[in-house]
Design brief:
With about 475 residues, this protein is an alpha/beta fold. The chain is about 45% helix and about 15% strand.
Length: about 475
């Protein structure tokens, strides 16, 4: 199967083949994102040794696995005796590499890297020694480490202050597909869906290749979502209990934070998270929030004031949000069509569509002709008072060219109509925002809908720019 998307990541990894020095590469990201597939596809002709750690196995079993893998891949005859330490294991790998023909890059791929490191095993020290004393002295080695435990790679390798400090020469953070990549991925499997249906699917499971790789042609989005999430044999029925556990070693705090954020659409400040979860303020919470951000589960949203203490942490992982809204403590056997008839669905779909737009800021800015302009993006809400009414704005693009786009996001099934009352409401909302924000910038009311809006007199008198869903697929 042809590799879909990942254009920048592929270009980076391929560029290392032309360098006249060895490279130490860390590829990390959430579970099911396609890390192993990416490395294997890009370096299909250069991998000379590939070994994956064993889940929850002891040091002896990890060493035996490493030795057996090396013996299998060493066609000239591998080491006779299994290693007793990781220093011995990497020494055997060095001997194997030294015996390979000269010329061309040689890729060593260590997958599920965190599973190799068992208590008091000395794996990381041996890995550092292997890189520093062997690989870095050559010009033809690309050492790639990868794994689902992204937080472990970040802490132990990328941000390490010990032996591995500054050893990584390149790191690739693999993120979920954007809508355009998801569309191409589905089409490669002959799954033809409309823009709206793909967006609907994306809002439920996100751009995770593994979740959608087995979809069959000829199914409606309702049938697909029943098969994935809601039916008695749903493929992702047991995904959530494994999702955070596979990525984070101590995952209880991560799940607690995510569950709290799932209840607050616009996000929560750090103090609000502490109050809601009962977690203590300190380094532990800081680590949890940073790891959730690094793995793409949450975004940091800075409000108009740009005061760092007011930063909002917003849950943007589609699968987690859908899980807590519709699957957590679920009773009965609701189908997708039953869920869409509920008020809970209407509330969720509006917020989920906002998240999609936050992940496609570049596409929105490009469609508006402002992708080269520096900007800050956030949502905004202000409670009313006796002196001034309140207002809420879905999506704001605060630009450095003295302009602000106030976006209204409408995930409707039909062409949207701007009525007289709605136009009045939008103008009032814009005025409330300008007064609260005390801004002198030009403010443009902008509409983003699924099927576009009717060009009536109220639309023409109120909306400065309008976009349709298809621009997010660019």
């Amino acid at each position: 199967m042809k590799l879909i998307g990942r254009v920048e990541e592929v270009a980076l990894l391929k560029s290392l083949l032309d360098k006249d020095e060895s490279e130490f590469v860390a590829v990390y990201g959430r579970r099911r994102i396609g890390k192993t597939y990416l490395v294997r596809q890009v370096y299909a002709n250069q991998i000379v040794f590939e070994c994956s750690g064993l889940h929850q196995k002891d040091m002896a079993q990890q060493l035996e696995n490493f030795w057996l893998t090396l013996a299998e891949q060493n066609k000239t005859g591998g080491p006779i005796l299994p290693p007793k330490t990781w220093l011995q294991a990497f020494s055997q790998l060095r001997a194997y590499l030294a015996g390979l023909p000269a010329g061309g890059k040689k890729v060593i791929f260590l997958d599920e890297i965190s599973w190799f490191e068992t208590p008091r095993s000395g794996f990381l020290a041996a890995l550092d020694n292997f890189w520093n004393q062997f690989c870095s002295k050559r010009e033809d080695v690309i050492l790639v480490i990868c794994g689902s435990a992204a937080s472990w790679i970040i802490q132990k390798i990328i941000n390490d202050r010990g032996g591995l400090h500054n050893r990584i020469t390149q790191h690739v953070r693999l993120m979920p597909f954007r809508l355009g990549e998801m569309k191409a991925f589905l089409e490669a499997r002959n799954v033809q869906l409309s823009y709206k249906d793909i967006a609907q699917l994306y809002m439920c499971v996100g751009g995770i290749p593994f979740y959608i790789k087995d979809l069959r042609p000829g199914k409606s989005v309702a049938q697909i979502l029943d098969e994935l999430l809601l039916g008695s044999g749903a493929r992702l029925k047991d995904e959530f209990p494994n999702l955070y556990a596979a990525i984070f070693k101590h995952n209880q705090g991560h799940e607690t934070v995510v569950q709290a954020l799932a209840q607050k659409n616009k996000g929560m400040t750090r103090n609000e998270i502490i109050k809601s979860t009962g977690m203590k303020s300190g380094g532990g919470l800081t680590v949890v929030l940073d790891e959730l951000f690094q793995c793409g589960f949450i975004q940091r949203i800075y409000p108009f004031s740009k005061v760092s203490e007011d930063c909002l942490y917003r849950l943007v992982d589609e699968f987690s949000l859908f899980y807590f809204r519709f699957l957590h403590n679920r009773k009965g056997t609701d189908s997708w069509q039953q869920i869409t008839a509920t008020q809970s669905f209407k509330n969720w779909s509006g917020y989920a569509f906002e998240n999609v737009c936050f992940k496609h800021v570049y596409q929105i800015k490009k469609a508006l002709g402002i992708h080269g302009i520096v900007s800050n993006e956030y949502s905004w809400a202000q409670k009313g008072s006796t002196k001034m009414p309140g207002a809420q704005i879905d999506f704001i693009i605060d630009r450095s060219d003295n302009c602000i786009n106030l976006l209204e996001l409408k995930f409707h099934n039909t062409e949207f109509e701007v009525t007289k009352d709605y136009a009045s409401h939008l103008r009032e909302k814009a005025e409330v925002f300008k007064q609260h924000a005390r801004t002198r910038k030009n403010v443009f009311l902008t509409l983003l809908t699924v099927f576009g809006a009717k060009r009536n007199e109220h639309f023409l008198a109120t909306i400065a720019q309008d976009l349709t869903l298809d621009v997010l697929f660019d």
